[in-house]
Write a structure and sequence with these properties.
Distance between the termini: 20 Å
Structural class: alpha+beta
Number of helices: 4
Order of helices and strands: EEEEHEHEHHE
CATH architecture: 2-Layer Sandwich
Helix content: 25-40%
Largest sheet: 3 strands, mixed
CATH superfamily: YqgF/RNase H-like domain
CATH topology: Nucleotidyltransferase, domain 5
Strand order of the largest sheet: 5-6-7
Low-confidence stretches: none
Mean pLDDT: 92
C-alpha cells in the first residue's frame, strides 16, 4: 500500500513509503504508529473506480479498508479524518513519472508510493470531491 505525506499549508505531497499488506490487511499497529509519529490529521484512501466513474470490484474493498481505518483511529482517540478519493489513472501517471526520473528500471518495480503522492495532489486540488468515512459504520 503506497503512502504519501501531504502538507495542507503548501498543498504539496511527497512519496513516503510502501507498506506491506497481508491478505489485503496492513500491519495495523505499524500504520497507526506512523499516523501518530507524523501527526497525521487526514488520511486519503484511494478509491479504484472504473473509467466511467462506476464502482469497480476493488471499490468495496477500499470502502471496507477506509471504514476499518476510521474505526481504529477513533479507538485510539486520534483526531484523524479518513476520506476516499478517486484514484483513476494514478498508477499510469506514477509509472510515467518514475520512468522519466529513472526511479524504476522495469515494469514490475513498485510505484505505489508515487501513486499515493499523486492521489494526495488530487485531493488537495479538490478536497470536496472526496468521500468522508464515518467510523461509526466501521466493520
Amino acid at each position: 500500500m503506497g503512502m504519501a505525506l501531504g502538507n495542507t499549508i503548501t498543498q504539496t505531497a511527497r512519496a513516503f513509503d510502501i507498506l506491506a499488506m497481508n491478505n489485503g490487511q496492513p500491519d495495523w499497529d505499524n500504520l497507526i504508529g506512523i499516523i501518530k509519529v507524523w501527526g497525521v490529521a487526514q488520511v486519503v484512501v484511494g478509491l479504484p473506480l472504473n473509467m466511467d466513474g462506476t464502482s469497480s470490484m476493488l471499490s468495496k474493498r477500499a470502502h471496507k479498508f477506509a471504514r476499518r481505518l476510521a474505526h481504529r483511529v477513533m479507538e485510539q482517540h486520534l483526531p484523524v479524518t479518513v476520506s476516499l478519493c478517486d484514484e483513476r489513472l494514478t498508477s499510469i501517471e506514477a509509472r510515467e513519472i518514475a520512468w522519466d526520473n529513472g526511479w524504476i528500471k522495469n515494469e514490475r518495480d513498485p510505484i505505489d508510493d508515487i501513486s499515493a503522492c499523486i492521489l494526495m495532489s488530487t485531493y488537495f486540488a479538490d478536497p470536496n470531491s472526496s468521500i468522508a468515512i464515518d467510523a461509526i459504520k466501521a466493520e
